[in-house]
Amino acid sequence: MTAFIVSRLVQTDPLTAYDAWAHADRMREWWWPQWAETTYDLDVQQGGAYEIRSPIDGVAVSGGYTEARPGHVLAFTWLWDGESEADRVTVVFDPVDSATTEMTLVHVAPGRAYNPDYEQGWHDVLERFPASSDA
């Protein structure tokens, strides 16, 4: 089993940070902006589903939301196109002060050995998150 944690401090309140994950137009700005044709289909609610697809690069990930509490927690399954076993991802939004949030992402991959590329991928994506820095 693989599990790792990536944290970022973001210069915004927890609800605004959560909204950057919950709205396709906001996510488009930071998730995979280098792939202009990427589509973001998000139904962010418990029991909802998502799909992020980049036809140019041939990459897609999809899953379902298992917890969606605006400004607090967003949890979802994570399944790369062509894989059969889903990982679990949880993002927690903790206020540090009125203008700063610590965003902590926990990725658990029960059926996979550790691969540093997965962790590096999250670092790459979260480094583009609006006003983020390593925590």
From TrEMBL:
<protein>
    <submittedName>
        <fullName>SRPBCC domain-containing protein</fullName>
    </submittedName>
</protein>
<dbReference type="InterPro" id="IPR023393">
    <property type="entry name" value="START-like_dom_sf"/>
</dbReference>
<comment type="similarity">
    <text>Belongs to the AHA1 family.</text>
</comment>
<feature type="domain" description="Activator of Hsp90 ATPase homologue 1/2-like C-terminal">
    <location>
        <begin position="14"/>
        <end position="129"/>
    </location>
</feature>
<dbReference type="Pfam" id="PF08327">
    <property type="entry name" value="AHSA1"/>
</dbReference>
<dbReference type="InterPro" id="IPR013538">
    <property type="entry name" value="ASHA1/2-like_C"/>
</dbReference>
